Amino acid sequence: MLSGRALALAVLAWSLLKVVVRRLFDGPSGLALFRENYDADGLPPLSPAERAALPGFSRCIACGRCDLGEAERIAASRGAYPGLMTVVLASSRSMPDFDAAALALSHVPEAVLAEKEQTCPTGVPFRELARFVRSKASAALALDGEGSAPADLALAAAAAPPVAALDPASAERAAPEAT
After folding, report:
1. 17: in domain
2. What's the pLDDT band for 149 if we cut at 50, 70, 90?
């Protein structure tokens, strides 16, 4: 029977042999394995640049400053847009449902996102986050092939401005229906 160093070398050699054989004859690995496991969940892989940007998206401390002045957009969205703070928190804490996040962000113009960046005490890059979410929603739709109906609707809404152009009359009409 082997003992000491001889046993350690035998176990190490056996483990190496198993790894080599497994890599030769097993299925996909790396990015292909990731896609096989997570494409159905709508979880796309991240590029190194996207991975580096994630900590910036997560700087939100939920102070609520970005929600100031958002009542009209929230009412006009008829539930699709819960407010910028909620969207940022949901989009940055874990990989979100990108379709829903893109739909919510479609209710906030780029100029408003730029303005909100100036008022954010932690400097959350709202415009960059919106681009990230929209690109991941588009990628998820492309992976779907034909796309599912909810994804198609969300991305169509995200690509076009909200139907109600945020005039006060439309916000007043939407507000009573929401209660």
Report:
1. no
2. very low
